Amino acid sequence: LTDDAVIASDVVITMGCGDECPYFPGKRYEDWVLEDPAGQGIDAVRPIRDEIKTRIEALIASLEPADAR
Fold first, then answer.
1. Which end of the chain is less enclosed by CB atoms within 10 A, N or C?
2. What's the predicted TM-score (pTM) here?
3. What would the mean pLDDT of 53-62 be, rounded to a whole number?
4. Distance of CA 1 to CAs 22, 24, 40, 46, Å?
């Protein structure tokens, strides 16, 4: 994650990768702790994918103006 990407963002999402990301005041930071899909079969990865989709949908809903919902 680059400084430029964080500066251009309102919300910064990490997924428990353990990387240190740049911090800028005034940004919303969330760390989504998810199971690591590395080396897992498709049946194990699908629920992780579904969890990411659910979280993205909730994030988008939280960013929309109330009158747009």
1. C
2. 0.77
3. 96
4. 7, 12, 25, 25
User: Tokens standing for 36?
Assistant: 């690591």
* Angle ∠(12,3,24) on CA atoms, nearest 5: 60
Residues linked to residue 28 through DSSP beta bridges, in sequence order = 11
Residues 44 and 26 in one domain: no
Q: Which of 18, 19, 24, 20 is nearest to 6 (CA)?
A: 24
What band does 2 get if pLDDT is binned at 50, 70 and 90? confident
Alpha carbon 65 to chain centroid, angstroms:
20
Rounded CA-CA distance 27/42 in Å is: 34
